[in-house]
Amino acid sequence: MMAASPDDSLRPRVGLIYDERMCRHTTPDGEAHPECPERIRAIWKKLESEGIPRRCVLLNARKVEDKYLASVHTQNHIELIKNISSKEFDSRRQKIASELDSIYLNVGSSEAAYLAAGSVIEASEKVAKGDLNSVIAIVRPPGHHAESNEAMGFCLFNNVAIAANYLLNEKPELGIKKILIVDWDVHHGNGTQKMFYKDPRVLFFSVHRFDFGDFYPSGDDGAYCMIGEGPGAGYNINVPWEHGQCSDADYIAVWDHVLIPIAKEYNPDIILVSAGFDAAIDDPLGGCCVTPHGYSLLLQKLMQFAQGKIVMVLEGGYNLKSIANSVLACAKVLLQEESVGSIQTATFKSTWRVIEAVRHELKGYWPVLDVELPQNLLITNSRPCPAEVTYSSSESDVENDEGTARTINFSDFVEDDVLLPLSKLKIDEGNHGKVIASDQVQEEESLSASEASHDAELVTSNEIVDGYITWRSLLSKVEVWYASFGSNMWMPRFLCYIEGGKVEGMSAPCCGSLDKSSPKDVIWKIVPHRLLFGRSHTRTWGAGGVAFLDPERSTSDKAYLCMYRITLEQFNDVLLQENSLHQENGIIKQMASPLLDLHILEYVAKNKSLPLKTLKDGWYSTVLYLGKEDDLPILTMTCSASDVERFKSGELPASVPAKDYMNTLVNGLVEGKQLTREEAVAYVNGAATWKL
């Protein structure tokens, strides 16, 4: 341990841990990933540029002992992480990682995980003893998602939980009997919650994006009703945001009206902060707007407790500038240096709604909460939820972000009379049984069935129900080209949408199409459109972006398309699955009417693209017309033009793809004989780092 300068004798003794060895944990083949070594390097570089290390006490990182890991993790999990970087695992390391939720592993993972956990123990013990007032532990991999028996969400060992158990159970002489864990990472600390769910010695507080259970790690664990069990009832506090864009004002309101009142009653002996900075402005995964000054205020409000004994442990945070500036602001607060900034926005109305729900749930355990909030506070200090945002509760296998909201531009949608369902089509007995539009469609706007279906066979009588054509019978005779630019370029992946099932790397199977016939033909085409990667998390592929095609043409760009000749019925089933409308409460749903019928197809062909009103919450809600091949229309599905603008502005996250998702793109391009593997990787990486 290196001492601080004598000139700083009156300055609080703040410890700092950083070790370059934790940067050896990286993706095995050097692929881009949000949880990368540059995260902690950027922090350290920023702190050095401001002279922070010279004003702190530098601590040496140390590796954790297995016996301390065993206080929260199973022996099987400990043995796996301990040995995963050894040569013994070279041939199966990646397969093991692929079977875990959002995890990569390499030859440096074991050492980094042991150093991260051990360093947090070292920091916590120094503060508990009184050797230091506080410590900032710049460690990785992060820990709060790691559960007792498995790694998940970028986390290998649960660093904070291990340290808390160490203080409570291994060092009783230090007098630490009550620990407050504050988790302000934008994702719920599911692993930490489960480890102390029945333990009143730990008050676990998590404020996080929840989006009604759709935001990672998803499910109900992060709900405000999860308050602990048995002797731990009332000691687990979740504050679940309903949406993104929460800012300093929202977090401060939660501190003032939930956390601070409870902390005063609880009176902790030490505070461990799971300090994720992915709720920060411009973070690619979080979608919130907390400033460095905002984080410094949150930390400053905690310093009144436990005699200022605070250990701030790095968790998430994936924008290098934001994470570095935020840690710097927190370091200055711990050093009791001036923090400059102001709160610029009011609190969301939804935040007050959540605060009131949390207070109501916990008031039986914390009487200080059994007081109604002043109505003038709720009225004068609030702003509506973003008017342009709606929130999807879908479970898209490819397109489901961690709940990030998307803009709905209603002017993009066509009038209802254009979105004529196929049920409005009737048999015209005077036209030899061919299909024509009903009189609700103006003649000049409609196609004849023979034109629209490319001389499809006549519909037989057993395909007519009460005078109407079953839409599947009709559209099964209409062929189109489905042009894929994403993971479906790899045929085995695309066939999951037709036949059902999944390929390696997918966490959930597809339900498939009712018509499981294979494509009649497969060809490739290059189009003048920009490929880009947006969003930040999918339930199938984990953390990372997914592919979109900019609806606007650009002669300076090119995108590879793998085109499958399928029926319009099958295209509807693919469209349904891509936009997560195929399940409700785990049950496969069937469409009473198609999403894209012949009249909508005609409109798309005339206007080149159409955002479908029925898919307004889907990520791939825009059907794009790309011309014809062999006199058949070429169709694809992508995001709206307004979403592209939101990617440009940073309102929606733009992220590199997950490893397994990227592999499907590369496999498609290579097996389709379009590019070599090296060229395919470069193509995807170029699109993933697009600059608009």
From TrEMBL:
Query: Known catalysed reaction(s)?
Result: N(6)-acetyl-L-lysyl-[histone] + H2O = L-lysyl-[histone] + acetate
- Gene3D superfamilies recorded: Gamma-glutamyl cyclotransferase-like (3.10.490.10), Histone deacetylase domain (3.40.800.20)
EC annotation from Swiss-Prot or TrEMBL:
3.5.1.98
The chain positions of domain Histone deacetylase read 33-333
One GO CC term, this protein: cytoplasm
The alphabetized UniProt keywords are: Chromatin regulator, Hydrolase, Metal-binding, Nucleus, Repressor, Transcription, Transcription regulation, Zinc
Q: What's the chief localization of this chain? A: nucleus
Task: Identify the enzyme class.
Answer: hydrolase
Per its record, what are the GO molecular function terms?
Answer: histone deacetylase activity; histone deacetylase activity, hydrolytic mechanism; metal ion binding
Q: Which GO terms describe its biological process?
A: epigenetic regulation of gene expression; regulation of developmental process
Q: Which co-factors does it depend on?
A: Zn(2+)
Which Pfam families does the UniProt record give? Hist_deacetyl (PF00850)
Q: Which InterPro entries match?
A: HDACs (IPR000286), His_deacetylse_dom (IPR023801), His_deacetylse_dom_sf (IPR037138), Ureohydrolase_dom_sf (IPR023696)
User: Where in the cell does this protein reside?
Assistant: Nucleus
- Indicate the family of this protein: Belongs to the histone deacetylase family. HD type 2 subfamily.
Please give the name of this protein.
histone deacetylase
The source organism is Musa acuminata subsp. malaccensis
**Highest lineage ranks of the organism?**
Eukaryota, Viridiplantae, Streptophyta, Embryophyta, Tracheophyta
